[in-house]
Structures are given as C-alpha cells and as structure tokens.
Design a protein that fits this description.
Layout: H1 2-5, H2 24-40, H3 42-65, H4 72-78, H5 83-86, H6 88-98, H7 105-108, H8 117-146, H9 154-163, H10 165-189, H11 192-198, H12 203-216, H13 218-236, H14 243-261
Helix pairs in contact: 2-14, 3-4, 3-14, 6-11, 6-14, 8-10, 8-11, 9-10, 10-12, 11-12, 12-13, 13-14
C-alpha cells in the first residue's frame, strides 16, 4: 500500500507532467519489454485475457443466430476499444516487475485500493460509451445504405456486402468510421490509464496528458495504432484465440510505451 499512500501527498496538474518525443525505436522497445513481461507471468495474462476473445466470440455467434450479421464485425472490432480497461491488471504487473515486487494475482489488482481508482472507473465508463457509440454508428450506417431491411442470413449479407454498390460503400465508410473511433480511443486512453495507475492525477489531467502525448508524437503514435490493429487482426484470425496471447503482450507493451512518453 506504500505506492497508494504517496498519492495522498500531492495532486499533479497537467503542467507538472512532461511529455517526451519518441521514435520508432521506442515502439520496438515497448513491444520487446511487453513480451518479456508476458513471458515472466504468461499464465496470468492468458487466463485474464481469455475472457475477452471468448466473450466476443459468443456475442458474435449470438448476433449471427439472431439475424444480425451486419453487427458481427463491429462487435468484434469494437471490443478493442475496451482493451485498455481489460489491461489495467497487466499495467500493474508491469509496474510491479519494474519495481522488483512480487507478481501475484493479488498484487495485480492492488490498484483497486488507489485513490485514483475512481478515475479509472470513470475512464472505463467513457470507453464503454465509446464502444456503444461505435455500434450505434455502425448500425446507423448499415440502415442508411441498405434501408430497414436486415439480411435473412449470413449468406445474404455476404452477397450484399460484396456484390452491391452499397456493400462496397459500407466497407469503405465503415472502416473509415472505425479508424476515427480507434484514434479517439487511442488518444484519450493510451497514456491515461497507466498515468492514473502511476501518479496522483485526476481523470481530466490523465486524459489531457494522453491527448498531449499523442499530439506531440502524432506520426509515431499513428504507427503504434497501426501495429496494434495488425497484431489484433492476426490474433483474431484464428477464431479470436490468438488474442489470448496478443492482448496481454500489447497490454504490457502499452505500459512501457507510457514510460517512454511520460517523464518520470
């Protein structure tokens, strides 16, 4: 609890937090360090994140069975917006490994005792609202292009998607819309969740600092977003099972990226 007790002594403002300029070498370092953290405690990471792809898979099957195939991809893709929320315990494990502390399950959830935990919950709610907003916009876009006439089967949806002009437009506009949501999620959360875990800040300061960090390193952070998207796509390619390894590695890597972005 010593780490949490220091939070009672001072409250940092955004002006107290200095942003570093990073390069692609920092991204490479973060990924290597994330893999090292995952290797040090692989069982925990796999067990924790296994809930994530399993939930996505079950929800997708439910949608397909409920004649809602047009929402299958948005549901799975949108789950990545909740990745930082799921990764809080991974951030704490990486922090503890840095400090030479034990890597126990109990220690991984020590952050629930921090005074900044309310901020973590608030930001988690914001990410959940962002996810729901993405699903709403995906459905709105589909019905805007095809009208209020949902496909009767997955095969019919595939024919609409590939064989019609509205289908091509859905893929183009849908991916563009998804990129906007993904960038917003990256900007407000990539440094905010680790910062709330690491320093005595409010949720507004954490989000503001995260946005400043992304804006100060725009091209490098866009590359980071692309790397995350490619790795998540590869992990999801095999019935989402690969996400059980990809997500914890990315979670740990995000902590180390935060360390590169924010001056200690």
């Amino acid at each position: 609890m010593a780490h949490a007790n220091t939070f009672d002594d001072i409250r940092l403002s955004s002006s107290d937090i200095e942003i570093r300029k990073i390069t692609t070498a920092d991204l490479k370092f973060a990924l290597k360090a994330g893999y090292a953290d995952f290797s040090a405690r692989p069982t925990f990471g796999v067990f924790l994140i296994l809930i994530y792809p399993l939930s996505a898979l079950l929800f997708t099957l439910f949608l397909l069975g409920g004649d809602l195939p047009y929402l299958a991809f948005p549901v799975v893709a949108g789950f990545t917006l909740l990745g930082p929320v799921v990764s809080l315990a991974l951030f704490e494990l990486s922090r503890r490994r840095e400090a030479g502390l034990d890597l126990t399950w109990r220690g991984a959830f020590e952050f629930v005792h921090y005074p900044t935990f309310a901020g973590m919950l608030t930001l988690s709610l914001v990410m959940a609202v962002l996810y729901v907003g993405w699903l709403f916009m995906a459905e709105f876009l589909y019905f805007g292009l095809f009208g209020a006439n949902p496909p009767a089967s997955l095969a019919e949806f595939g024919e609409r998607l590939i064989g019609t002009r509205p289908g091509i437009a859905l893929m183009l506009y849908g991916n563009a819309l998804g990129l906007i949501f993904a960038f917003v999620a990256l900007a407000i959360s990539v440094a905010a969740f680790p910062l709330l875990l690491d320093k005595p800040v409010s949720v507004l300061t954490a989000v503001g600092t995260s946005i400043r960090a992304v804006a100060s390193n725009l091209y490098v952070m866009l590359l980071w977003g692309l790397i995350v998207a490619v790795l998540l796509t590869a992990g999801a390619a095999v019935l989402l099972v690969g996400l059980a390894a990809v997500l914890p590695i990315l979670g740990h890597a995000t902590w180390h990226l935060y360390r590169r972005l924010i001056v200690a």
